[in-house]
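User: Could you write out the 3D structure of this protein bound to AR6? I've included everything you need below.
Assistant: Certainly. Input first, then the structure.
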Amino acid sequence: MSGLARQVGQARLEVIVADITSLRVDAIVNAANSSLLGGGGVDGAIHDAAGPELLAECRTLNGCETGDAKITKGYRLPARHVIHAVGPVWYGGNRGEDAQLASCYRRSIELCRAHNLASIAFPAISTGVFRFPADRAAKIAVKTVVDALPSAPDLTHAIFCCFSAQSGKLHQDVLDAFGSPC
Ligand code: AR6
């Protein structure tokens, strides 16, 4: 894994291997489920780190459709906001999973634009409990973010926060095809 950040338009894009709850950014994205009431994986880690106030705010949101995203405050997290995106469960690829996954990334960037956020970090949505194939998801994640960047001019830093070196390499290999090193 080369680990090089890429400049794409106004934004620096990078892949890191880290616990997303440790990141001091304007928003971290949560791989949530449609209840928005917590769960395991990165969702559980985010709620644990943010504290009970996060769940209290989530209870006011009335859930979220697959492919959509909703924003809350970050509470005890170093991140100012959490964008709760609901990725698809993988059923083999013929039930609109690709489009729903892409929509998670696009909606997250729309929320950045609406809230004038400058930095965002994404986990590899749907690739854990929801079983979306990791290589296919990495391609969708990076391409969708690259395509959506022009719609959020204040967004100058986007991070793909992977939880394993293997996931990091998948994202880096896709990212290396875009923009220029920086
Ligand atoms: N930081 C960054 N990435 C993480 C972390 C972390 N702390 N913890 C896990 N990952 P998953 P999904 C990675 O299962 O597949 C929950 O129960 C993980 O290795 O968290 O979208 C929700 O409530 C994987 O690459 O989310 C839903 O019910 C990626 O995050 C359901 O799971 C996503 O794995 C959502 O499933």
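The longest helix spans residues 97-114.
User: Perfect, thank you.
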